[in-house]
Design goal:
Blueprint: H1 2-21, H2 40-58, E1 67-72, E2 78-82, E3 89-90, E4 99-103, E5 110-114, E6 121-122, E7 125-126, E8 130-132, E9 142-145, E10 148-153, E11 160-164, H3 169-172, E12 187-194, E13 200-204, E14 210-214, E15 217-223, E16 226-231, E17 233-235, E18 238-243, E19 257-262, E20 268-272
Parallel strand pairs: 2-3
Antiparallel strand pairs: 1-11, 2-4, 4-5, 5-8, 6-7, 6-9, 9-10, 10-11, 12-15, 12-20, 13-14, 15-16, 17-18, 18-19
Helix pairs in contact: 1-2
């Protein structure tokens, strides 16, 4: 309860920051900053605003800290959900039996059979059953009871049930984020080298899956006389870098960090490592985080951005998919 009280004190501050900044933020990485050179004052402003958005996003009631379960759904299976111990997926609240998920044999969709009447809401409707899909990540089909929400995801093409609870210990016991001091020298204007159209990069995740991601190019820069290259993944209209460096497992999260950047301009891309941040798996074990590809394991100490989380750890090493 003491940890939960600390979070209650933190949340009003974070909510105020969110009201100002989160409207422009679709990812943990926040809104893009201007490319190229910026003044010292603007550099500090950009990064402090980014940190406030980052904290607000992470601590949302149904953000990454609220995850309490990830159950992979086998094609053709029937998976029961409820607060009673005999269910395949057991939750802390709600009726003893919420209902049953019937997984289609092809593994493309799931039909939810409601067994609890009005006590369970399906996609905003009481006493309803229906088909669940893993389509829209921002507004997925979901079932809910007493604040606990469930929806489908499809990491690596496999359907899984993701369960979120605002009262999760990972959220109530959140201790805040630690950062290196802001360092202008780690805001780098790198050369951008395009790859042939259609090229992909094989990226493993913590579930042991290998996924081919769109790989439009790589960034190259020099640090301490050494040439460093990072392969980029395309995510909508941004570049996404998954990397590890000499600080990983020592001063920063062991399985690497994330960094977003704007699309290149005239063969250049701005990499601000002050905005490098920990993946969700640093805080929570019920995630599907990608891991740094071999090409993005850097022989350098990047002492910028987010440091190792001081609270309850998430995933410390890759794992195999869970079963319902």
């Amino acid at each position: 309860m003491a940890a939960y009280s600390r979070l209650q004190i933190l949340l009003p501050v974070l909510a105020a920051a969110a009201a100002i900044f989160i409207a422009a933020c679709a990812e943990d990485n926040g809104a893009p900053g201007p490319a190229g050179e910026v003044s010292a004052e603007r550099f500090e402003q950009i990064n402090l605003e980014w940190r406030r958005r980052r904290a607000a996003r992470l601590t949302e009631p149904y953000g990454w800290l609220s995850l309490v379960e990830l159950a992979v759904l086998e094609p053709g299976s029937a998976v029961t959900i409820g607060s009673a111990p005999g269910n395949n997926v057991v939750v802390d609240r709600g009726p003893p039996r919420w209902g049953t998920l019937h997984v289609e044999h092809g593994g493309d969709h799931v039909d939810f059979e409601n067994a609890a009447g009005d006590a369970v809401v399906f996609d905003g409707r009481k006493a309803a059953s229906g088909r669940m899909t893993a389509g829209d990540a921002e507004a997925p089909t979901r079932i809910e009871s007493e604040g606990i929400r469930m929806h489908l995801v499809d990491p690596g093409g496999r359907l899984a049930l993701r369960v979120r609870d605002p009262q999760a210990p990972t959220r109530s016991g959140f201790v805040g984020l630690d950062y290196y001091d802001l360092k202008p020298q780690w805001r780098i204007e790198a050369e951008y080298i395009e790859h042939p159209q259609g090229r992909t990069l094989q990226v493993a995740n913590v579930m042991g899956q290998l996924i081919e991601e769109p790989n439009p190019g790589r960034a190259r820069f020099t640090h301490d006389g050494k040439s460093i290259e990072l392969e980029a993944v395309q995510e909508d209209d941004r570049l996404f870098f998954i990397f590890a460096d000499r600080t990983s497992g020592r001063e920063t999260y062991g399985l690497g960090r994330f960094l977003y950047a704007d699309l290149p301009d005239d063969g250049r891309v701005t990499l601000d490592f002050n905005q490098a941040y920990n993946p969700p798996c640093a805080f929570n074990a019920y995630t599907t985080c990608p891991l740094p590809p071999q090409a993005n394991r850097i022989d350098a100490w990047i002492r910028a951005g987010e440091r190792k989380y001081a609270g309850q750890p998430g995933i410390e090493s890759p794992r195999t998919p869970p079963r319902p």
